[in-house]
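Reader question, answered in our methods column.
A reader sent in the components of a multi-part assembly and asked whether the whole thing could be modeled at once rather than chain by chain. We filled in our standard form and ran it. Here is what they sent:
COMPLEX SIZE: two components
ENTRIES:
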Amino acid sequence: MTTPSPGRRRSPVFDAVTPLGLTARYLTLLVILAVTVGPMLWELSTSLKSVFEDVYTATPQLLPHRPTLDNYTQVARTVPITHFALNSLIVAALCVGGNLLGATTAGYALARLRFCGRRLVLGLFLSTLILPGEVTIISQYQTVTRLGLGNSLVGVALPAMIGALNVLLMRNAFLAIPPEVEEAAVIDGATVWQRLRHIALPSVKGTLSVIAILTFIGAWDDFLWPLLVLQSPDKLTLTVGLSYLQSVFAADPRVIAAGAMIALLPILALFTALQRYFFRGVGEGAVKG
Amino acid sequence: MTSHRWYTPWLLIAPALLWLAVFSLWPAINTGVLSFTDVHTLSGGRFIGVHNYALMWHDPQLRDAILNTLIFMAVCVPLLTFLPLLLALLVQRTLPFMGFFRTVFYFPVIASAVVVALIWQWLLDDRGLVNGLGRQAGLLHGALPFLTDRWLLLFSAIALTVWKGLGYYMVLYLSALGNVRRELHEAAAVDGAGTVRRFWAVTVPGVRGTMALVSVLIAVNAMRVFSELYILGGRTGGIGGQDVSLVMLIQQAAAGSDGRIGYASALSVLLFVLTIGPLLLLARWNRRTD
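And here is the structure of the entire assembly that came back:
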């Protein structure tokens, strides 16, 4: 079944792929697949069912009789859901941009430049990793309010714009580049900025993309923090808006399902498009930790 | 070799350091300070000693929250330590479609906890899919009150957490499995060890560092549960308000125009103390094995 790849010794016992084993493996995977995506598909199907179709029926129908987008227009009529989506996008973009800039420069300095106090700074970044975000969220809320940023999208994005973990990930990525390359550039008179821009950055694209993907997902999905910070209905992000939708539409699961899909489908599509970079980057970075 | 001015590194670090100071270090200290005051959102600021901590002893909801957290941990830690490892073993081999399975198994991780909780709420509704299928199969006569019963609601939230966490820990195991030496597997296979035997004798010892890390992460994350219970229990922690988590209590105390910031801070300190436990265990474990 499998063709032995050249240069790699294959053991007849260990690598044996029996038809029975293969069938069992794929059957198990299909069952897990059903459990994993089944609930999501059911929600998608519910969101496409018309009001004339009984969603509570005793014999559940996965495929809608006559698929309709009515529930989506219904959500948009009742709450400014496209506005919520735009708000989420703004917050996520601010977080991704801030982390790519701030974590890259700090990570580079910590990995590549010698200076007095480096170990102390590194220790400070490391020490915050043991602090769950929920522990400081109340005090953070007070800080953001005092800065006059309560009930604003900037207030939601601000604390997450440079994450300590991302600084450490970037430092690890820069450490993995052989120092000889840069030493040659120093002798040639390249400035720190030129070295970072033209030598170091191209080698850490994997980690950069993982940070960008994870930061975007984290900001898009975040709930507790925006729930604390935001009050006015026009400022809400998607997750907070959805949680209010739940109480307004307790009666119609179709409409709630449509709202849930508006939050879910874009992020799944984005991840599927970028999953190659994600799994490759995770494979490169996590092994060293 | 110095190839830069003394201030260049500080310029590069300045933004990150500022963020660290303002949004991590200061809030950490401030949380401790606030926990000894009666600060409210708009008023207060008096030092009241350990009054907030004394209040916690008489908070019946806190007792529920801690009990719920312990149950969460007792179920999640074993399940999420082993199931994702088995899942990683299933998708690890280079066979057709493995990339597809890996990506799709990660979908619940990417989905927001809010969206996932809404999906499950509909699934577990009295007239939802699970009760419908149960009735159709003749297993149920009435409907199981997944979302209204105190214990069923808690276990529904736990099931949701396990479902959502599988893919996350699977990816952690995948990168660890890459480091398990093939030769050991082959040697064991040649010696006649079956699949189960090889799992316990080769795979598990090979990834035990990751296992320790994963189980600590699960325990800490179980203490940080919020959205799942908040949405599934209709914002109030179920009908009797007993299905609450520590973070839900923090949010409830601090929310609103006259939130009890002082009391919420004391609860935050408690949360911190509890999460430190598993982390210390991990540190000790790491030192012992080094």
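What stands out: Residues 1-13 of chain A have pLDDT under 50 and may be disordered. Chain A touches chain B through 95 residues (CB under 8 Å).
Send us your own complexes using the same form.
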